[in-house]
């Protein structure tokens, strides 16, 4: 009888340890995210399930073209792509992205841009100083984000630069649907 009691106690300890470990991993290292809406098409689709790696921004800085999750409001997170970093100037002219006056390729948009005519740009022209905040460069501690679906995305063009401390993490792994399982670029 005593042996059975000890066995139950060992199981309870193991389950409790596993639950605490899962909670720590969930709170500090990874967060599940569900893509809500079409703003990241063609890269991500509505209903894609992803893992956001929180650790990246605890020990490092965002990189250009990271797909990030950030707190847009108190109860809503958005998923967008980092386009410009602090201290940089960003503008779009003739459907081309310019950072500090130099053209920057956006290879993740090649497939979708090819379906647009030269009369209708994929991304309408903008200059950083004409956007919310009227900045001449991305402020220290901020990033500039855009959705890949430029015609249907609430991003830095409307919200202004995003504070780095609002970034939840980088979303680079999709686990559902299974046919698109894997790392996202």
Automatic annotation (TrEMBL):
GO terms for molecular function: serine-type endopeptidase activity; signal peptidase activity. GO terms for biological process: signal peptide processing. InterPro entries: LexA/Signal_pep-like_sf, Pept_S26A_signal_pept_1, Pept_S26A_signal_pept_1_CS, Peptidase_S26. Pfam families: Peptidase_S26. It is found in: Cell membrane; Membrane. The keyword Membrane applies. CDD domains: S26_SPase_I. The active site is at residues 39, 80. Its EC number is 3.4.21.89. The keyword Signal does not apply. This is Signal peptidase I. It comes from Aquibacillus salsiterrae.
């Amino acid at each position: 009888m005593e042996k059975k009691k000890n066995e139950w106690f060992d199981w309870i300890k193991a389950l409790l340890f596993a639950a605490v470990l899962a909670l720590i991993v969930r709170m500090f290292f990874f967060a599940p995210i569900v893509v809500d809406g079409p703003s990241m098409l063609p890269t991500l689709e509505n209903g894609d399930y992803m893992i956001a790696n929180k650790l990246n921004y605890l020990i490092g800085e965002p990189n250009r073209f990271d797909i990030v999750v950030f707190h847009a409001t108190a109860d809503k997170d958005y998923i967008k792509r980092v386009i410009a970093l602090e201290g940089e100037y960003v503008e779009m002219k003739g459907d081309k992205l310019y950072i500090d006056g130099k053209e920057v390729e956006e290879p993740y948009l090649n497939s979708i841009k090819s379906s647009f005519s030269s009369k209708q740009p994929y991304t309408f022209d903008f200059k950083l100083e004409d956007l919310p905040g009227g900045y001449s460069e991305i402020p220290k501690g901020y990033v500039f984000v855009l959705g890949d679906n430029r015609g249907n995305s609430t991003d830095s063009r409307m919200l202004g630069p995003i504070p780095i401390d609002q970034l939840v993490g980088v979303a680079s792994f999709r686990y559902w649907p299974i046919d698109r399982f894997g790392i996202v670029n």
